[in-house]
Design brief:
With about 230 residues, the protein is mainly alpha-helical. Helix content is about 60%, strand content about 0%. The protein has 11 helices and no strands.
């Protein structure tokens, strides 16, 4: 058993008792499932934009723009004439829900791209930080400077203290190689895209939840707007 494994075993109980460890004050991110093995992705490209195209797509931009427009308007159900399905905003809500699925798929692709590229610098990190978004945030924070694990306030908002200690010990013994400036730029581009997509996904969730009283008022009263939005999704 390696030193990192022994440390992780010793600190497992302490980690369970910690209240912190999530990114900021947000709820813990659901794990992003790995891209299915049968999905063939060409990860040899230098830029993530060669495989992840949603962020720059016209469809994504149009839906997000419409969401912002309707958030500023906040039309009431009483203002809709006829069935709610005939209202223009209903189509936007449905498209927004569908877009969250596309975002999840894109996040899977970007996560795999980042893992493939960063394995040159710190191959062990993937097994130490299994949560995709936490992994992406950690890669963005560390880059080439693995010694930044120690006393890093940003990292303490992402990972538990126990995990940070294991990552720090493993980083000191890794056989990974330094990344070039160009490789770091490509990785940072991919990390930024993933985090921006994730922020957009949460923006959509907030919007759809806020419109449940408009699209499904009875259901929202019975089970709450948040649950109603999840059912619709």
């Amino acid at each position: 058993m390696s030193l990192a494994d022994e440390l992780l075993a010793d600190l497992e109980e302490a980690a369970e008792e910690e209240e912190g460890g999530s990114y900021g004050e947000e709820e813990e991110e659901p794990a992003i499932e790995d891209v299915q093995e049968e999905t063939q992705l060409d990860l040899s490209g230098d830029s993530v934009k060669t495989i992840a195209k949603l962020w720059d797509s016209k469809m994504f931009a149009e839906i997000m723009m419409k969401i912002e427009e309707y958030i500023s308007k906040q039309a009431k159900a009483s203002e809709v004439m006829g069935p709610v399905e005939a209202a223009p905003e209903y189509r936007v809500i449905v498209d927004a829900n569908n877009l969250t699925v596309e975002i999840e798929n894109e996040l899977n692709i970007i996560h795999k791209f980042i893992r493939d590229k960063y394995s040159k610098r710190f191959p062990e990190l993937e097994s130490l930080v299994p949560n995709a978004l936490d992994y992406i945030r950690t890669v963005k924070e560390l880059g080439n400077s693995l010694d930044k694990c120690k006393n890093n306030e940003t990292l303490q908002q992402i990972l538990t203290n126990a995990t940070i200690m294991v990552v720090s010990v493993t980083a000191s013994t890794t056989q990974g190689q330094q990344l070039s400036e160009e490789e770091l730029e490509r990785l940072e581009e991919a990390c930024d895209m993933a985090l921006e997509l994730n922020a957009s996904k949460h923006r959509i969730y907030e919007y759809v939840e806020s419109r449940m009283s408009f699209i499904a008022p009875n259901l929202s009263i019975i089970i709450g707007a948040s649950t109603a939005a999840k059912i619709m999704g």
